[in-house]
Amino acid sequence: MRATLMYAAGDVRTETVPDPTLERPTDAVVRITTSCICGSDLWPYASMPASDGPARMGHEFLGVVEEVGAEVTTVRPGDFVVAPFAYSDGTCALCREGLQTSCVYGGFWDEPGQQGGQAEAIRVPLADGTLAKLPGGTDTALAPSLLTLSDVFGTGYHAAVQGRVEPGKTVAVVGDGAVGLLAVASAKLLGAERIVLMGRHTTRTDLGVEFGATDVVAERGEEGIERVRELTGGEGAHVVLEAVGARPAYDQALGIVRPGGTISRVGVPQYEDAPVGFGSLFGPNVTLTGGPAPTRAYIETLLPHVLDGTVDPGKVFDRTVALDGVPDGYRAMADREALKVLVTP
Amino acid sequence: MRATLMYAAGDVRTETVPDPTLERPTDAVVRITTSCICGSDLWPYASMPASDGPARMGHEFLGVVEEVGAEVTTVRPGDFVVAPFAYSDGTCALCREGLQTSCVYGGFWDEPGQQGGQAEAIRVPLADGTLAKLPGGTDTALAPSLLTLSDVFGTGYHAAVQGRVEPGKTVAVVGDGAVGLLAVASAKLLGAERIVLMGRHTTRTDLGVEFGATDVVAERGEEGIERVRELTGGEGAHVVLEAVGARPAYDQALGIVRPGGTISRVGVPQYEDAPVGFGSLFGPNVTLTGGPAPTRAYIETLLPHVLDGTVDPGKVFDRTVALDGVPDGYRAMADREALKVLVTP
């Protein structure tokens, strides 16, 4: 079959690889109907050394179950399914608490031995815990929106849930990528009174306004901080949803959070150390939370909103490519030509 | 009157200073009946340069109101009162939300122009917001326990509240100082199922057990982390209350917190940067919270527990000195001879 491999920064290829097969009795093989390129794929695309490649790419997909192992009980061949960006057994203590990204038996698709979603098919480990059945058929016009349950919608929602967004709160969102925009939509779902979106790509922030942003701040750095403070009567936002992962986004968040407020991060941090002392988090009693979203935990919560059209998260996709077009899709996202690229094998 | 001044690290003196007077219509003058030395006073005692001195010391006191300014309405001369370690107006948006340490008009006793509690009397700014009336007279045997409402009990309680300790949770407390021990008592008040106290001074950890610790871990560093992990079935604690403020305590907390858990800090951080990235907080979805405790917010909640004897927080005091004995009190606490020193002017 055809699959996407990254050989090094900037070097993505569509190649022929062996078809996936069942390796364990808890596996399923899924024929992929829709997948996509993630903003987080751009981090290795910018910096991966050749020694780490070639790596199978893609961690978001919809598909049809083709074959299941002897121990799989919750999905059958023919089922239309969505997979979250982490696989998990669904039964360990952490899974039961809804933290599937820390599953004792689970992991991520980019780990050695795993396969990628930007491909024609994939072996899914721990299929019972990982896959969620979807209603309807693969021909649904909702496919792009359903695919966001894999990662970007669930990740934006995780930011808002961890930040304890609730009615009456002022929320600021740092980043106008797909996750930032769906963090806006999630903050609205949770009842935020005011949602300030920080981003400078008008086509993106326009979509953010459609998703529920009440204000847009295009300025960055000190100027952006000033602007958010002005908009919030000098106080700052109760909750800051940080959907970038770069260090300047962390500093931005520190600058605009209200005393006693929360910074909730879902952008994968590209830094390890950062200020947490009296002059940053501690003095004003600011809470820092977030992490990789256990999107598996949110599928059942968010699916009804997608099905009834309350939210149309599929709007974050502004380009579609076939598998052979994936390398150009990476380029287009890296060049900020495309917000998020859908892949239809 | 007599008051305590710190001239530099290791140099504390009891000296004669001018009597306090009303400076603003919102001030009160309080005759101090009981005060104490704080674990946080030991940070400047270890490192304050002479250029920062002489500084008036002490931020915890009980006393009797002697005089009030024209605009003070909630306390009258003769009232027995307790003051938190931060003064605040009690009416700004942040005070109304219970975050008096971030009061727009407030501040801390060690700021320029303010006076200290290790003295015979003190000028209290914003008396209406700052002072809390206490029942009974100054001769009460409960004075040491009431005094802990100024700081250490409220601070331990803040750690537990911010960490969202609740029934069924496993809590680990890093630090066996007065705040750590009262964080244990607070975790018990909030219903924690298991409370692991990390500390290596037996007389202190014994008091911790009396306050509710179910396990004591004397080991530190990697060994201490291993021990806590063993005690928690390999998982770590749901909530870690960090009551030290030194960087190794932060690292300890990272090592023993469960995925999805919370580190709540109330030890004043003696560092600014620390790990917060994928390998520390982000990957396991750990929340970092805490800060200077708005102890004013907790006085009404904790007072009944002190009055009815549910908790006897005054047990953290193991030595009493008069004002002239304060310099030796600092030495005794710094040498770990005394846990916490009561001062009776």
UniProtKB/TrEMBL annotation, chains A, B:
Domain Enoyl reductase (ER), residue spans: 10-343
Record CDD domains: FDH_like_ADH3 (cd08287)
Database matches in InterPro entries: ADH-like_C, ADH-like_N, ER, GroES-like_sf, NAD(P)-bd_dom_sf
Cofactor: Zn(2+)
Gene3D superfamilies hit by this protein: Medium-chain alcohol dehydrogenases, catalytic domain, NAD(P)-binding Rossmann-like Domain
Entry keyword Transit peptide: no
Keywords: Metal-binding, Zinc
Source species, domain of life: Bacteria
SMART domains assigned to the protein according to its UniProt record, in alphabetical order: PKS_ER (SM00829)
Leader peptide range in chain numbering: none
Protein name per the record: Zinc-dependent alcohol dehydrogenase family protein
